[in-house]
Amino acid sequence: MTLYGIPPAGLRRSMAPESGRDHAHAIADAAHAWWTSHRGGSSDRAIAVGTLAGLALSAPSRPDGRDYGPFLIPLDDEQLVDTLRACWNSFWTYDPDLTEAARPLHDWLSHPADSDIRGLADYARILVRAGLMEYCSDTARAESDDVLGLLVTRMRSYSERQGTGEFFTPAIAADHMADILLSADRRPGELFLEPAAGTGTMARAAAATMRSFGTDPGAYRWWLNDLDPLNAACCVVSAQLWRLGRQVTVSCGDALRNTELLEEAVRMRAERAVAEQRNRPVLYPTRTRPPFWPWLSVPPA
Predict the structure, then answer these.
(1) By three-state DSSP, how is residue 248 classified?
(2) Whole-structure pTM value
């Protein structure tokens, strides 16, 4: 049975590209095509990328997990916004510090204008049809490429990337670099620092290489930094999709010049976030019950 012409999860899974890398490109292409066609170009990129990120965070933690499609597909624009708020409420419960680091992806949910949410339900249906939930629930697929980075790159013009000196490392190049860098033995607890992480694709490649060696990336510490706030926010979500574990730090600043100031800013942000969570257990008011949070042992209340 289909809803809005969108097949159930099992059929979507069988229809997905065999390669996880091809699947990531198909999702990013579908998202970008809809956004440029219906929202007039690449404006409001934080909303486009943030909607994808929120849905990605709510994906099941296993490929055979519960199909959320029948819940998401019938929603209208306002209901979808409410559901995205519930997703971030769950993440706020899970890790308030990383939720703060990801604020560029969800801050618009606090007071969205009518123009901000126009057509978002249709956009979400495009993402579900493209197999976003199935992609994100399968670690091997999710770590084959950087789906958030692909969309961010498509949403930025060539002149924008030239102006900032930004270069998106292709997945195959990142994979080769990871194979070389991780050929030596690494001890659990070591820190992997990426001062110019972009949206995190080198961390993705490193995690995939670790798993191919039979090593759990969650046994290590990760620090991902980028000058661009949206890029850094994407690192937060991608770290969850790539199962980097609980020892993840994400920052936004110049990690090559002002390292001490950056470390202090990260420490202060974490302290503020933990204190604020005690005073405000729910990040956004919502009428929707938070979905089961895949990275918690029990669903949040």
Answers:
(1) strand
(2) 0.87
